[in-house]
Structures are given as structure tokens and as C-alpha cells.
Amino acid sequence: MGEKIWEIRPRTHADILDQICADRGIDGIKKDGFLHPHYEKGMHDPFLMKGMKKAVVRIITASQRKEIIGIFADYDADGVTSGAVLSSCLDALRCTYHIYIPSREEGYGINVAGIDYFNKLGVTLLIAVDMGVTGKKEINYAHTCGMDTIVIDHHLVQKDKLPSGIVINPKQKGDPYPFKELSACGIVFKLAQALAHSVPNVLSKTQIKWLLDLTSLSTIADMVPLIDENRIIVHFGLIVCRKTKRIGLKKLYDVASIDPEKISPGVVGFQIAPHINAAGRIDHAQGAYCLLTETNPVKADRLAQEIHALNTKRQEELQVMLDSARLIVFKEKLHFKKIIMIAHKDWKPGLVGLVAGKLTEEFARPALVLHKQKNISRGSARSIEKMHLLKAFDSIKPLLISYGGHARAGGLSFDNTNFSKVYSKLLAYADSHFSYEDCKPTISIDGELRPYEVTETLVAKLKKVEPFGFGNPKPVFVMRSQSIQSLSPVGSQGSHIRAQIANLPIIYFQGMSASYIPKKDDVVDIVFTLEINEYRGRSNVQLVCVDWKQS
Fold first, then answer.
1. Which of 179, 205, 231 delimits the end of a domain?
2. What pLDDT sits at residue 2?
3. What residues contact residue 102 under an 8 Å CB cut-off, 6+ apart?
């Protein structure tokens, strides 16, 4: 979408590692902890979290009294992994429990149907994971059915909507917990730590560490910032992912051709997590939960095959939906407005969020993509840094049936007759909060490198900053005034570019669709990340092009 703006940070440190840490606000005492994550020292006391002690006592009491527990989990990767980690803890405590995961058609959050399901099974303790903080009405209904409730959530707390019962959410008012950005599964992991502290003879610290595979998966999938505790979770969680004891994950690695030894945040974010999400997007998330908790190898293999097929179907249907959405955007010239908002009756509810994310990425502005039902439009939104989605939805609350989410991602529903009003009100909100200049795609660059600085030693040094992800992006560099020595399209469709500058190899994925494609001997400025390319037993440093311009 036009030329990208390059924001180059000034080089203030001679050592590139010092520079990158400084750019991320990591210095002094923080720097050593950041570069050398320590499990024991880096974890905060779970009992600092409001409601944690009460939750632990209530769960242990339920275990001792042989009560029946109900787990109400969300249908995305964070919710499914939260349910699986919690069930592992309840198994260790020898609890009897049932799980309810709503379909996407039921919509996000706790609902009466699920509570009624639990009521028929004799549930006396309902634990909601990755939802519930806005379900005041539904939680009250559960109480009238004779259930105690524990809500474990990480979504922003809306005014006057905090439910009664036990609530564990570091974002709630008056919570002293020092880190507020855990995924829902991250908070369930803290509950697991608290349980292990309280009943160490039943749930050991070693058992808890094995839960880091799913906790790290959720942390990456839910795009919470990889700083503080999340960095510890992902750093050690990736190690557990490679050695996981979960038969279902192992079978998924097999069918998806994932090498366990090469699992990285990228592999989790672009291969493993999409498989877990695919079940809820195309069919029902119960299949993903069963995969993560299955102990029978034959059943696990069948589930892995089914989920892999669903993910393939998800990829195909997503491309069709994205092509359809882009046609509407260009036809109605919505990419010239500050917000893109589109709806269609044939779009799958489980894919609208992915399409919204793709549109926001391409057009650098908030995007709302909705499934238009008979009377209601329901969908997902993705945003840019300058527009806080939940605050924007708060501003049009009277027009909405339901809404929720974070600053950059959310969901909403409203009556079809209010489509124009919702769109115009959001556009008005956008006008008062950001300019068209904020809608230009921007690349943040950590600094300038010269050809002789690009070495395997540098790449090894940059590995200390891993794991990369949201809140700790992979370092991006610029190199100026370099002549293109060679350039050719590669890939099965000829959509990528392989090139060379200053005797350094370059790969530019989807480079043939870039707004500028240089020719041999052109002099360019290039923005890139660095990686080690291994081929036939040999390795060399490779520039992965992000963008380039004529010098």
C-alpha cells in the first residue's frame, strides 16, 4: 500500500547488543535478566495476584469434598490451552470435572447454555478461563444455579462490569501483581504455581514446568508482549515444546512436518498455533482441546490428522475471504478512509478476525470484518497503535449488543440497521484520535549496518535477545547505497526474490509484488533482518529483505 515510512533509531551505542537493549528500554539491572532469563528469579509470587489465595483454597476444598467442577473455556488458542493446563492441574488433584467450549456461533464469553449444561451435571464450582470478566449477568445466573465461580481472565475490565465471586485478573482495580500482560493461560499457569506451593505432595514444581509448553504456545498465539514474565515463559516454554510429553502435540508435529528441535516463536506462531485455532474457526475447538489432553496414541494421531486437514481448509477459505474483502475495499475505496469496516453474509465467523488482521497489516489502519447474519452483524476488529479498540467501542456502547477485547484486537456485535451509524461514529472517533499520517505503513529500524559488520558472530550475538515476538521484535537494520550484484525470481510461483549485494545473499519473500523491484547494478538502500541459512551442510549469513528503495 504505497511507500513505507522508515523510522531509523539513531546509533547511540558502539555495541549493537547494547543498542538493541537500549531501544527496548532494557538497561542496568534489567539488562542482565533480559539477556539471561532465569526461571526462579524471573517469576513473580502468584499469591500477589488478587483472588489467587481464595481460588486455591476453593479448588482444594472442591477436591477434598469430591465436588464436580466445570471448566468454561474460550474457543481460541489461549482459551483452549488454558482449559488444557487447568485440566492437568485438576487431574493431579484427582478432581472430577467437565469442560464446555462454546462454538463461534454462540459467540464469545460465558453463556446460559453452558451454565445449564454444567447444572445438569451437578457442577458446584464453575471456573471460567480466558473469559468472564465482562460476564456479570451470566455469573450471577450461575450463582442462582448453586455454583460458586472463579473467573480467570486477562481482558480489560469494563466499568461496573466486574462479576461477583472470585476473580483473578491482574488488570482489575487494586491488583498489586507487578506484571499485567500475561495471557489467560499465563494466569492459569500462575494458579498452577500457587496450587503446587499449597499442595507440593500432590502437584510438584517439576510437574508445573511441564505445563510451560502450552503456556508458551498461548503467550505467542495471543500476541501479549514478550517482556518480563512472558519472556521467561516463552524462553523455557520453547524448550518444553521441543521435549513435550503431550502425545497430541507430538502427533501434530508429525503430520505438520514440524521438526521439534527447530521450534521457535515463528514456528509456534505460524504453524502450531494456527492448527490449534483452526479447530474453532472451521469446526469446533473441542477437537483441539482433546488433542492437547489425549493420552491414547491412536486417538491422538486421528485427532492430529483431523486438525491438520481443518488447518488446510482454513488456509484455503481464508484466501477466498481475503480476496473477496479486498475487492470490496477497493471497489468502495475504503482504504482512503481512516477505518475499514465491511460485512458479508457468506463470511465464516471463525475467519473474520484473520481477515481483519490482514487488512490492517496491508492498509495500516483499523479494520472491522463482520459476518452479517439475519438481524445481527457480528465480527472482529484489529487496530493500529493510535486507536484503542476497547475505548472506541466504549464510545459507541449504546449502538452495540456486545463487545470486548484489547487495545489492538476486539470483537463486537450490533443490529444490522445500525451498520451506518456504527461506521460513522467510529470514523468520527478516529478523526479525533489519529491523523492520516498515522495510517502510513511504518518500519521501525534498530540501526544502520555496513557490509563488513554482517557476520555469523553478529547473528549469534543477536540470538541473546530471543525469543522475538510482540513487544520484543526481531532486530531490523538498514544498509545504504549498495549495488545489486544479481537478482532473480525464485519459488514455485516465482513470487520471491533472491539477490546479492556486497557479496551478501538476500531473500525477499513475496518480493515480486513489492512496489519497487530493482534491476542488476541499481544502487539501493535495503531494510532487513538477519538469519543463518543452512543448505547441504553449509551455513552462511543471509539478509531477509523487509523493504528496499532506490538509493
1. 205
2. 57
3. 74, 75, 108, 109, 111, 113, 114
